[in-house]
Write a structure and sequence with these properties.
Layout lengths: L2 H22 L27 E7 L1 E23 L5 E6 L6 E2 L4 E5 L2 H28 L6 H26 L2 E3 L4 E3 L9 E2 L6 E16 L11 E6 L2 E13 L9 E9 L10 E17 L4 E3 L2 E8 L2 E13 L2 E6 L6 E5 L8 E5 L4
Parallel strand pairs: 1-19
Antiparallel strand pairs: 1-18, 2-9, 2-13, 3-5, 3-8, 4-7, 5-6, 7-9, 9-12, 10-11, 10-13, 11-12, 13-17, 14-15, 15-16, 16-17, 16-19
């Protein structure tokens, strides 16, 4: 057999087998030139395209609670380091560590012997000045004492009275009293110690109310106001929540941290909270007529947010500006109005102007 004729017959058989295999595997039959590829899904919105089935909901205004989280430090409502106003030796200590004291209660007494002697001297001089003035005042009616002498004696009397008041004031500085109700801390001195204005005797804290100080970023300042509810938690009491109100807001923003200091007031009747504790704070603010939409309705694109609004059977793409967030919902600040019908399911198949068919139970 001729070799060339054999090779031609083998090539023809191979081609025939290839055609048979393609047909058996369901390959697409060749169409006429320019025909569209089979199997591609149509895009919604084209001429004559079928409406896209979607689920939609009406936008409604409702109540919304803004919540923010911050970290703060507890401070006593009033807090001082107890010191003496004068230098002297401690003769008596009238408090126990951790004791609750009332305003004006004596905490420490210092050596008063020198000041008591000065007070006795001042009182004796006052008594003498009063006697001289009273005698001269009766003699002045008979012109036995001149008016000038009487005026001088009256001035001496006033000086003597002032000296008594000064001696009493100096004596009072040797008694250390509580300026407000609170709890005293650890005792730093002992009997016989020489103390002065620079010596810390103890501390005094009013913890019936706790001031909670924390920073709020400037981007959230518009949401903070006096009287706003604050909820705090601490690791010391993990199952307990402490509730209070925003008491004051600093008038300045720190240029370094870009935050403002906020102080909240928390009732602490059982003294569970102590100054210096670290708390996590939740801020709450209720607002009315807030537009909330399901997060499924949002279509993010290039850092912007869009929704599809159903109008006259068509999906109209609308850009929105968002505000706060709630689980599963987003606040719309602008771009929508109450009553608008928006698509919440089926947005991935839509484009601007596409015809839609809203599910009956939407």
């Amino acid at each position: 057999m001729d070799l060339s004729r054999t090779r031609a017959r083998i090539a023809a058989v191979s081609a025939s087998l290839a055609v048979t295999l393609v047909t058996a595997c369901g390959g697409p039959a060749a169409g006429p030139p320019g025909a569209p590829a089979a199997g591609g899904p149509p895009r919604g919105g084209g001429p004559g395209s079928q409406p896209v089935a979607v689920i939609a909901t009406r936008v409604a205004a409702q109540e919304f609670t803004d919540r923010f989280t911050a970290l703060g430090t507890a401070r006593a409502n009033e807090s001082i380091k107890v010191t003496a106003r004068s230098s002297s030796v401690i003769t008596r200590i009238n408090f126990r560590e951790g004791q609750r004291v009332e305003p004006g209660q004596v905490l420490v007494e210092l050596d008063t012997r020198q000041e008591l002697a000065n007070l006795d001297l001042a009182r004796a001089q006052l008594k003498q000045a009063e006697s001289q003035y009273n005698r001269s005042k009766s003699l002045a009616a008979t012109k036995a004492v001149s008016a000038a002498d009487l005026d001088q004696l009256e001035a001496n009397l006033m000086v003597a009275r002032a000296q008594v008041r000064g001696a009493e004031a100096r004596l009072d500085t040797l008694v250390v009293r509580a300026p407000f109700a609170g709890t005293v801390g650890l005792r730093k001195v002992s009997l016989g110690d020489l103390v002065g204005p620079d010596t810390q005797i103890t501390t005094l804290d009013d913890t019936a109310t706790i001031k909670l100080e924390f920073g709020v970023p400037e981007t959230f300042l518009s949401e903070i106001s006096k009287g706003m509810t604050v909820t705090g938690t601490t690791a010391a009491f993990p199952d307990r929540r402490f509730t209070g109100k925003v008491a004051s807001i600093d008038s300045r923003v720190d240029p370094v941290t870009r935050s403002a200091t906020v102080v909240a007031s928390l009732p602490n009747p059982d003294n569970a909270l102590m100054p210096g504790m670290f708390l996590s704070i939740g801020l709450e603010k209720r607002r009315e007529n807030v537009l909330l939409i399901p997060e499924e309705a949002l279509v993010p694109r290039e850092g912007r947010q869009f929704v599809f609004v159903v109008e006259d059977g068509k999906a109209i793409e609308q850009e929105v500006a968002l505000g706060g967030r709630a689980p599963g919902y987003a606040e719309v600040r602008s771009g929508l109005a109450a009553g608008d019908l928006i698509v919440v399911e089926g947005t991935q198949r839509l484009r601007d102007g596409a015809p839609v068919q809203v599910a009956p139970n939407s």
